[in-house]
Amino acid sequence: MDQQDRTGMNEQKLGTFGGVFVPNVLTILGVIMFLRTGWVVGNAGLKFSLVILLIANSITFLTTLSLSAVATNTQVGVGGAYFLISRSLGPEVGGSVGVPLFFAQTISVAFYLLGFAESLQFIEPGIDARLAASSSLAVFFVIAWFGANLVTKAQYLILSVLVLSLVSFFAGRTPPADIAANFHAAYVQGQSFWTVFAIFFPAVTGIMSGVSMSGDLRNPSKSIPTGTIWAVLITFLIYAAQMIWLALHVDHTSLIENSLVMQKVARMPTMIFAGLWAATLSSGLASLVAAPRTLQALASDAVVPRVLSRGIGRSTEPRIALILSTLIALVCILIGDLNLIAPIITMFFLATYGTINLVAGLERLVWNPSFRPAFKVHWLPSLIGGLGCIYVMCLINVWATIIAVVIILTIYFYLTRARIRSSWGDMRSGVWFALTRFGLLRFDASQQHIRNWRPVLLVLSGNPKARLELIEAASWIEADRGLLFLAQIVIGDWEKLLTRQQAIKASLDSFIRESELSAIGTTVVGDDFEHGVATLLQVSGLGHFQPNTVLVGWSDDTLRQATFGSAIRRILELQKNLVVFERAEKDVDLNDLIDVWWYAKDNGSLMLTMAHLLKCNPRWRDHVIRVLRIITDEAGVAAAEEGTRELISGFRIASEVHVIVSNEPVLEVIARESERSAVCFTGIAVERSDDKEHPLAAYADLVAKLRGNVMLTKSWHDLGY
Fold it and tell me: Do the Cβ atoms of 308 and 299 come closer than 8 Å?
């Protein structure tokens, strides 16, 4: 393509004025300016009307800064605000805000058309406002179906009419008899500062129009911030001047009772009608064009059924979404009350604006390297804007805010459960990275104490789908209080097995997601089992945040491995606790006991803590913990019971103490007393084993005799037992 062709294409693009400033101004200066600003001044008085305007515009201005930052960091696609939010916070958050945004845009159509119909009643009092608005909606539907670009082409004409109507208004004057009455609040019954604010706020919610034009702009990174900020500032001055002019030239009664009070002041009253019709009809049609496109973007991302993104016939326009948008607007028109509809729009737009501020603030706060907007904003104004939106929502109507939040959270949790997979990267991993970094550094610098011990288990799961009972046991012990590292060791040559290791890691991660485990998957290549275990224990975790306990499954095959015994010793040498698990036999009638065989304090305290964690799981909640001790002298039973109770009292774990007198081998006593216990914790003596290669061989007979779940446990603190 030669230079001339490129220039020709560039000339077809829109600049800051036509692409951003004009669409924003036309949306902001709408039905509220013509039909409700006088009513606002009449209720709140000039002083508090200007306060309402200042608060509303402050929120809008801060949102404009955030919007400009986010919009200049990426090319904005179909969906406007939804697109920006979803690409930053993911489809779940984007959808939970995008769906209410769609309804806000659709309800806005009814809002503008009802304003248009209300103005017709000044010309023909007997006209049915609902019928007039519904008829206008039908015309809008046809235009949006066949030629929505007419609005863009006619925007300069509409702006000219709007400017002339404002000139006519400010050129007129009819000084009221008592100007002082308009300076102080005089709310009619049922109204207050915040209810009036809720009705006025939609007047300043037109800042998204320019963003939706991103694809048609010559220089979006420059035009979006410049055009939007200037639109907000100039319309703020227009509204402020209008409020002052109305307070100086209209009596209080007319401000309250005459919706089209601007006509009373204007030099050419007919121009007020022309401006109102131009503003309301253009804004209404623009909203009817925007709403289906928001719904189309939601459908394209599978947030709502994909059928809503389709056209009809060969057209790619979202005509099914247009039909749905029109029907919703029609329902709102049949409600027929501007003052009822305006607060609903306010709530939805405040939620959207608050989220946009949150996006911009978090993007800057977490210092995501990929967040490099052309328009830079500090994170503090963005977060202030987000908190301001939430605060104002609560002040307007606490119950309406709660309902809005419930709707948004319901959509969010539904989308989370739906597990929508996005094809784009978002900022969530950056947020978690920043929080993890913050937490890890402070955790690593904090004093480590046994009082704060939590189960961080390295589970030697192998293929987890073949060891589901082991994974389940790990979840029992972890009890949502700690963390699991699911580990798989690939034995063999590194260079030959590297590709296989990556595939195994991907499969392990998929298993964790599908099983909704509090776990992290890790895979290593080792020359043998011992080497793999040693490698895992040295690379898993970070700083003090690393596994403190290794969980392995009991297996006769494992016992026969030459490297298994040395691997167990390596685990203890690296100061990790050891738990060897064997699942309960199937179809066996077990009692409701969790047995803890106490011998040494360190090992006993570990087993008792894990027994307590088991009871945190609903499956084990009704089971009873028994702490059992074996002595050889009948005379020492009372002292042993008292001493054991005193010893475990500091653990504050409800348990029964049983002292057994026997001269039989310890493992035989355990096998007999705990044969049908649901869970049996017993310590293991690694260093004292006669078989150095197979330290667990002595426990094979015990494991075979026990019918319930077995937890052979070894605390690294207790290397003498």
Answer: yes
Instruction: State both tokens at 270.
Output: 């007919």
The CA–CA distances, whole Å, from 76 to 217, 220, 621 equal 11, 9, 52
273 contacts 264 by C-beta, under 8 angstroms: no
Distance CA 199, CA 634 (A): 85
- The CB density around residue 41, as the number of other CB atoms within 10 Å, is 29
pTM above 0.90, yes or no: no
Q: Which long-range contacts (CB under 8 A, 24 or more apart) does 467-473 make?
A: 467/553, 469/553, 469/581, 469/583, 470/551, 470/553, 470/581, 470/583, 471/515, 471/517, 473/551, 473/581, 473/583, 473/709, 473/711
**Residue 135: CB partners within 8 Å, gap ≥ 6?**
none
Question: What is the pLDDT, as a whole number, of residue 229?
Answer: 93
d(CA 85, CA 352): 9
The letter for the amino acid at 345 is I
Q: How many whole angstroms separate alpha carbon 409 and alpha carbon 21?
A: 34
Which of 111-120, 234-243, 264-273 has the lowest average pLDDT?
111-120
As given in the structure block, the two tokens for residue 534 are 């040693």
Coil, strand or helix: which one is 526?
strand
Cα 53 to Cα 200: distance, rounded to the nearest angstrom = 8
Give the 3-state secondary structure of residue 382.
helix
Across 612-640, average pLDDT: 89
Contact 158/282 with Cβ under 8 angstroms?
yes
Q: Is residue 230's pLDDT more than 70?
A: yes
Q: Which residues pair with 551 in a beta bridge?
A: 459, 579
Q: What angle do CA 67, 410, 90 make, to 5 degrees?
A: 40
> Which pLDDT tens digit goes with each residue over 430-442?
556 666 666 666 6
- CB proximity list for 650: less than 8 A, separation 6 or greater: none
Q: Which domains does the chain have, with CATH numbers?
A: 3-418 (1.20.1740.10), 448-583 (3.40.50.620), 584-711 (3.40.50.620)
Which is higher by pLDDT, 231 or 483?
231
**Residue-by-residue DSSP string for 538-556:** HHSSBTTBS--EEEEE--H
Instruction: For 338-366, write each residue's pLDDT tens digit.
Output: 677 777 777 888 888 888 888 888 778 76
DSSP code at position 583: P
- How does the average pLDDT of the chain come out, rounded? 81
Q: How do residues 550-581 score in pLDDT, each as one tens digit?
A: 998 887 665 555 567 777 778 888 888 899 99
End-to-end CA distance of the chain: 82
> What is the phi/psi pair of residue 493, to 5°?
-75, 130
Nearest Cα to Cα of residue 201 among 346, 102, 387? 346
- In a 13 Å sphere around the CA of 395, the CA atoms on its Cβ side amount to 16
Backbone angles phi and psi of 532, in degrees to 5: -65, -45
Where are the alpha helices (H) located in 479-575, listed in sequence order?
494-515, 529-539, 556-559, 564-573
Nearby residues of 241 by Cβ (< 8 Å), 6 or more positions away: 170
